From TrEMBL:
<dbReference type="InterPro" id="IPR008927">
    <property type="entry name" value="6-PGluconate_DH-like_C_sf"/>
</dbReference>
<dbReference type="Pfam" id="PF14833">
    <property type="entry name" value="NAD_binding_11"/>
</dbReference>
<dbReference type="InterPro" id="IPR006115">
    <property type="entry name" value="6PGDH_NADP-bd"/>
</dbReference>
<dbReference type="InterPro" id="IPR011548">
    <property type="entry name" value="HIBADH"/>
</dbReference>
<comment type="similarity">
    <text>Belongs to the HIBADH-related family.</text>
</comment>
<dbReference type="Pfam" id="PF03446">
    <property type="entry name" value="NAD_binding_2"/>
</dbReference>
<dbReference type="InterPro" id="IPR029154">
    <property type="entry name" value="HIBADH-like_NADP-bd"/>
</dbReference>
<dbReference type="InterPro" id="IPR002204">
    <property type="entry name" value="3-OH-isobutyrate_DH-rel_CS"/>
</dbReference>
<dbReference type="InterPro" id="IPR015815">
    <property type="entry name" value="HIBADH-related"/>
</dbReference>
<dbReference type="InterPro" id="IPR013328">
    <property type="entry name" value="6PGD_dom2"/>
</dbReference>
<feature type="domain" description="3-hydroxyisobutyrate dehydrogenase-like NAD-binding">
    <location>
        <begin position="163"/>
        <end position="289"/>
    </location>
</feature>
<protein>
    <recommendedName>
        <fullName>3-hydroxyisobutyrate dehydrogenase</fullName>
        <ecNumber>1.1.1.31</ecNumber>
    </recommendedName>
</protein>
<comment type="pathway">
    <text>Amino-acid degradation; L-valine degradation.</text>
</comment>
<keyword id="KW-0101">Branched-chain amino acid catabolism</keyword>
<dbReference type="GO" id="GO:0008442">
    <property type="term" value="F:3-hydroxyisobutyrate dehydrogenase activity"/>
</dbReference>
<feature type="domain" description="6-phosphogluconate dehydrogenase NADP-binding">
    <location>
        <begin position="3"/>
        <end position="160"/>
    </location>
</feature>
<keyword id="KW-0560">Oxidoreductase</keyword>
Amino acid sequence: MTRIAFIGLGNMGGGMAANLAKAGHDVRAFDLSQDALDRAKAAGCLPMASVGEAADGAEAVVTMLPAGTHVEAVYGDLFAASLSPAAILIDCSTIDVATAKRVTEAARAKGITAVDAPVSGGIGAANAGTLTFMVGGSEEAFGRAQPILAAMGKAVIHAGANGTGQAAKIANNMLLGATMVATCEAFLLAEKLGLDPQTFFDISSVSSGQSWSMTSYCPVPGVGPNTPADHGYQGGFATALMLKDLKLAAAAASDTGADTPMGAKAAELYQRFAEAGHGGLDFSAIITALRG
Ligand code: NAD
């Protein structure tokens, strides 16, 4: 049993903290939302009154926060608190690579080990404990984080040095955004050419156009597996979050001089869709905008 401080008990963090408690860990949970704290308590975590209180005596601190600014603020609170230098900091939020490197460097300066460990898989996977973690940090740090992450996921993969977990995450999600848009376009073109969507799915899902967006997350209602398309595009992975990740990818591409025209086009389309008031819909709903 490890004493773990868990900060950020939202859509994702709530289920993740519950799975750590279920695995027998002593989970000290904190969130700014009282509702989230109440849910964590019901799931077997011990609710705490502040970041510092949760971190007191913790052997590991897991954070699952919206963006880099929140992570930087919480890490500031952690460094100001009586956090043991023997504790490991595991940030599972999706944030920009530069902030991820900055906070792990700030931790290192205090003699504290930190890893970036963003996740793939949505709220369902967070609740079921079947997330994929991509971890940036030293071999030694990965070895320490691995058993904790394994209690919340089906795969824990070492990406490389600090920051590479976030790099893998934003590159993956840029690919996901672009393939989703392309999959929607292909369905619409096939439809205009007189193909039944189910027939196109049956052909393309076993042909060279196949992708996860097609086979596992089909954007057309009633076609393929059960997806948010079958539920009015509710739940799933929000357009606003996809847009956030595409913007992180665009910023990283600009910083590094990488040419990512498909990622940029996907970002532009999702920006327009979010501005039209659809930020809360699942990202596969972009097909409704392309349909016009
Ligand atoms: P969320 O907004 O539901 O949860 C974030 C939680 O952090 C909230 O409960 C909020 O109150 C809390 N918080 C914010 N600032 C805090 C502070 N200073 N101290 C304590 N708590 C604080 O977001 P989410 O959907 O759980 O996503 C979390 C992260 O996971 C994001 O970076 C997101 O991009 C990433 N992610 C989300 C999904 C998904 O499907 N939702 C999938 C993969 C990755």
